[in-house]
Amino acid sequence: MIFPDKTDEELYNGGGVYLLTFRVKGKEKQLCRLKEGRRLDDTDFEAITEETELGHEVARLFDSLRERYGGMFVVSKQIMPDHFHALVWCLDSFKHNIKAVANEFARICGMRAEELDAATHNKEKHTEKTCNNLNDSEDDIEYGMAAEDDSQSAGYGSGSLFGKPSVKVLSFAEQLKDTKNYLQANPKNEMLRMADPYMYVTVRKIEFNGLSFHAMGKTRILDYPDRHVVALSRKLSDEQIAQEVKNVTRMAKTGTVIYVAPISKGERMAAREVRQGGLTLVVMMHNGFPARGSDMERHFLPGGIYNKACAEGRLLVIAPCPGNYEDERVVSKTEEELRRKSELKGFEYSPLPHSSARWRFVAGNMMLELISRCEK
After folding, report:
1. Per DSSP, which regions of the chain are E strands?
2. pTM above 0.85, yes or no
3. Contact 161/25 with Cβ under 8 angstroms?
4. Could you read off the pLDDT tens digit of each residue along the chain, which spans 376 residues?
């Protein structure tokens, strides 16, 4: 653990590691511009961020928090056109609530944005008035009063730059590493998304073999005829996992689409090897997509490591619709699999509630089995 276990009430107080996300209201691209840098090869490139004056101020203000709040260190930060990410590590000596700090930072950024807007607004108006009234000092006085009225009618002092900040708690060292990599790859991933935005649209309720899924990515991957489901036990040794992953990768190289719900260590390793090998993958998400029409849905992307695969049409991310868990085939196969595993361990099977995480994890794999064996 990066920091000791805490109760829900203590989770955002004192020491901890947090990913803070600040999104510009209306998704306006006010903080930076993205452009392609040098080509690394035929398919890869560098992404360059050019901060606007406001984006530079946001980054500067965030750096100043380290002096304002003792025991808080900025591990990494990333300015994007319409949002800002910051990864922070707070020591045990940190005596504040990180959500309150994030809210205060958003408020300060809103005030600074209004100051910059007002300065630009006044400068433009002053230039126009000066050109039209070079010899009329009274107009200059009247302009000064009008500028104040204009600034109020334009909304200065009435709004905020960011919406409600998002605060994510990181609990394990691997999360810290993955999040740092995600922030570094964010500009390139955004450019890939912009190049083919269709790949990053949540498609609601596609049906396959009588089951319904929400999906993101290249949905035609479901039609590819050669399919293999990866379901690896948590009990496998590292050597056994390595062999299974090798077998899966070999199959994927022959054109077989790999279906996986990356829960166990072996399943996660298999998904990673397939993705890194530039091969085709269907990934099942048990926690689903954000709610339709929500702010989170508009900003949702596949996990940082999957963005390039999605852009290149090698990845389909799916999430089961609730009705799938009541499908007779899914229920029957799930109960059968759970009973088999219990008896294999020498236990008498006791049915699990369908709402339990264990039952749903197994049910998800059964769904993958059903759609992978569907004849098209």
Report:
1. 16-23, 32-39, 45-51, 72-79, 83-90, 166-170, 203-208, 211-217, 227-230, 257-260, 281-284, 315-320
2. no
3. yes
4. 556 566 666 889 888 999 999 999 988 899 999 988 877 666 667 888 999 999 999 999 999 988 888 899 999 999 999 999 999 999 988 989 999 999 999 999 999 999 988 876 555 554 454 445 444 433 332 222 233 333 333 332 335 899 999 999 988 777 888 888 888 888 887 887 777 777 788 889 889 889 999 999 888 898 888 999 999 988 899 999 999 999 999 999 999 999 999 888 999 999 999 988 889 999 998 888 888 887 777 777 776 667 778 878 899 999 999 999 999 999 999 999 999 988 888 888 888 898 898 899 999 999 999 988 876 5
Residue with tokens 């380290």: 66
Contact 299, 190 (CB under 8 A): no
Supply the DSSP string of 207-220, one letter for each residue: EETTEEEEEEE-GG
Distance (Å, whole) CA 325 – CA 310 = 27
| Helices (runs of H) and strands (runs of E) counted in the chain | 11, 12
3-state secondary structure at position 81: coil
DSSP classification of residue 304: G
In the DSSP assignment, the letter for residue 162 is B
Q: How many CA atoms lie within 13 A of 303 on its CB side?
A: 18
